[in-house]
């Protein structure tokens, strides 16, 4: 495929359904790190996360007949809201399978966007079986939060916009959970900014991508433990080859480093970022000497946090 | 005086020392209120609050001989940091009198900006006496956080920028504590946007400005009780006449309404605003029917909150 042309098409297609988000920087943080960080603020994206980009592209890529039958996904996080909103904007029926353990505020948000919510037991098996049942009953198309090429290409538009806004940085950092944002950003590099080095930041408590990249094959995460709730999922077989080809390294960070980076952004930049978004910054801080004096892009993946359960004390 | 020309001079003078802050809006909040709100984000200002504008103008307005002797102020809040930073930028000695009860993080911030901190007992009398002593010993010039025309005119530049950025709104709301921001915004209206209606938002637990405007003379606040820590001070005799002439009304809000408005901005806009900044939005929400369909500017005064003591539960 011609990455540049395809991504240009994707960006054009989803433009009416997403925000072009701002790029912010902080002289205090730059001074502290001895380099120049540009934060691509997807926390200001519609529904509060980059997931809107991938969901919009996935929904818009459906055939007319697929659109008429609707979509289904299982998620308790940002992708659920993204699919609900992207579907609503395109008058497509959306069914979201959510574990019964998901916070009611998340269910309400999805329902608020007009989607149908089906609850299931809080296991991956139950989620998959419930989604299967919906597909059998309605003919709906399954959308995957990260391991689907349309989603990955939609995600790529965040990096594309960043390169357009600040020019080509020396390096770009994203969080890595399922791998959809990191793979998308890698495609953006391939298509538009060949000289950029691409890095992932990953919590030590959910280090499957780091391990997989080292091993050369996918090692699924077992029993992930991290405050970065968006990064507890495993790398997928669609995005892993892209990451293997184009990503230079995946840095691990500890929980306290994630909270410190999150606090730094809240206090210095006065913007709300979710724990997952603090992971690439924490990785950059930890490895700052490697990037001394350079220009580094950081994709701030989202800003959806529960204000009743913050990690500051 | 010719307000327009004088304020244009002030804006030019302080421009190198401040940020031109962005104006943000939220379609969710607009839909909720049935009007169009434009938030002037002084939480993104240098040191995190609009106070930088007034402090910069006050420092820059000193004579050469005054500059050589330095400045002094007593404050435990944003003005202390603003004077410290504005002085540092202009290589002027600054002494900040702070009550011994002020959080150590605030003292450290002021010291970090290179100012000298003198602690005193946590009473207004002790603060004033200590500042007097500094003036006697050093010849320093006293700067007042809100009741000084140079400070008020510096503050006016926030409103001026907003009018420049979005055109003339139907109304503009600011918080009111000492009255420096409200009076400044009223001057901005006088000089640049005659048709704008100017309103203040004030906590019921510190309602001296509301009472004073009704009575026609200053009624000082006694025993103020509000989460909006920046608004516990009384209106001054320099800004009161300006407010009396140009401000249409001061709306009162309850503590729960302040917290609700603050939460709304944090959750919907993903930006950090301090409780004082939520007061004008709370006032607008409470009186939204009066402004149905209109365009309203809200000056977000600052974003300095202690993440360890948030009002959400």
Molecular structure report:
Two copies of one chain form a homodimer. The first copy, chain A, has 313 residues and is of the alpha/beta class. The first copy, chain A, is built from 13 helices and ten strands. Chain A folds into two domains: 3-48 and 149-300, Rossmann fold; 52-142, 3-Layer(aba) Sandwich (Rossmann fold). Chain A has helices at residues 3-14, 27-33, 51-60, 64-69, 78-89, 104-112, 124-138, 149-166, 180-192, 208-215, 239-246, 255-269, 275-286, and strands at 23-24, 36-41, 71-74, 94-99, 116-120, 141-142, 171-175, 197-203, 247-253, 295-300. The interface between A and B is medium-sized, with 18 and 18 residues.
Most extensive interface, chain pair and sizes: A-B, 18 and 18 residues
Major beta sheet summary of chain A? 6 strands, mixed
Q: What is the straight-line distance between the termini of chain A?
A: 50 Å
Rounded mean pLDDT score of chain A: 96
CATH topology of the largest domain in chain A: Rossmann fold
> What portion of the residues of chain A fall into strands of 2 or more residues?
15-25%
Computed structural class of chain A = alpha/beta
Shape of chain A: globular
How large, in whole angstroms, is the Cα Rg of chain A?
18 Å
Q: Helix proportion of residues of chain A, in percent? A: 40-55%
- Note poorly predicted spans of chain A: none
Strand order within the widest sheet of chain A? 1-2-10-7-8-9
Task: Specify the CATH class of the largest domain in chain A.
Answer: Alpha Beta
Q: Count of helical segments of chain A?
A: 13
